[in-house]
Amino acid sequence: MSAPRDFHYRMPARVGGQRPGAHRGTATGSGQEFIAHQALFDRPDPRRLDLRASIRDPEQRWLVRVNRQRSGIPVYLLADVSASMTFGSDGSKLERLAEFARSLGDATFRMGDALGMLAFDRHERTDLMLAPMRSRGAGVLMSESLLHARADQPSGAGLAEACMRIAGKQALVFVASDFHAPLAQLGAALDLLSHAHVVPMVIWDEVEPQAPEGDGLLALRDIENGHRRGLWLRPLVRRQWRDTFAQRRADLEKLFTTRGMRAFHMTGRFDADALSRHFFEAV
């Protein structure tokens, strides 16, 4: 695997929490963003005494400066390790997800945020769960876990089970999957993350949206359930194949947009610059 490329992220809104960090926060503290003056009696912190404001105060009070501090936020990677993620023409989708995990580890360490991972297929994969940590090696640990993960189960209710662990928490959540599961099931799981800033990472391979060239009988095997079937390729079938993927993408966009989410589509290798632009445009 090549060395990870850096990307940069920032939250589009203020975040809560008392732990200092790199994001605009709502908590008052030792930051540089001035909010207002407050009486020393109400806020006994003589280190922040403002003499000029105190002299001008018509009530002749001693005034202290009240500032907002920048805060940290937990970051989670919700990783799909179902059997469909093993598909790929130039490296599997799971390998591309592992590449992103390494880059995410570097990004969160640079920002001072804690990084954790939850994984799912048919059920939640607790064997791949990683509690949030502030460590330079968190991304490497996640990447290695994904590369060596058993990925032979179909997708199912595992996403909802994983989301239940962080439901109601304010966090930055990357949901990385090919999103081939039923939309109703997906929507119910994402509704559990209404307090978080969610970035759906739609990972598709370059060859998925296009049917193979040529006419004739094509033997197919469902990668998740192992069922085999034959398909007679002809121009109409190739057009339906392409239109089905285009409709799937439109349906996903509608599902995400109605929940205030903006998806990042990763077709091919992970593009760090494109993900940085995704965050800057949102801000």
Structure summarized in a few sentences:
The chain has helices at 51-56, 93-111, 138-147, 158-164, 183-190, 235-257, 272-282, and strands spanning 20-23, 28-29, 33-39, 63-68, 75-80, 115-120, 130-133, 172-177, 197-204, 216-221, 228-233, 264-267. The chain has 283 residues and is α/β, with parallel strands linked by helices. Among the domains are: 28-68, no CATH class; 75-206 and 261-282, von Willebrand factor, type A domain (Rossmann fold, 3-Layer(aba) Sandwich), CATH 3.40.50.
Strands, helices and their partners?
Elements: E1 20-23, E2 28-29, E3 33-39, H1 51-56, E4 63-68, E5 75-80, H2 93-111, E6 115-120, E7 130-133, H3 138-147, H4 158-164, E8 172-177, H5 183-190, E9 197-204, E10 216-221, E11 228-233, H6 235-257, E12 264-267, H7 272-282
Parallel strand pairs: 5-6, 5-8, 8-9, 9-12
Antiparallel strand pairs: 2-4, 3-4, 6-7, 10-11
Helix pairs in contact: 2-3, 4-5
In whole angstroms, the N-to-C terminal distance is 31 Å
Helix content: 25-40%
Tally of contiguous helical segments:
7
Ranges with pLDDT <50 over ≥5 residues? none
CATH architecture of one domain: 3-Layer(aba) Sandwich
Order of helices and strands: EEEHEEHEEHHEHEEEHEH
Structural class: alpha/beta
> What value does the Rg take, in angstroms?
24 Å
CATH fold-level assignment of one domain: Rossmann fold
- The pLDDT mean sits at 89
Number of strands: 12
CATH homology group of one domain? von Willebrand factor, type A domain
CATH C-level name of one domain: Alpha Beta
* Portion in strands: 15-25%
Query: Which strands sit side by side, in order, in the main sheet?
Result: 7-6-5-8-9-12
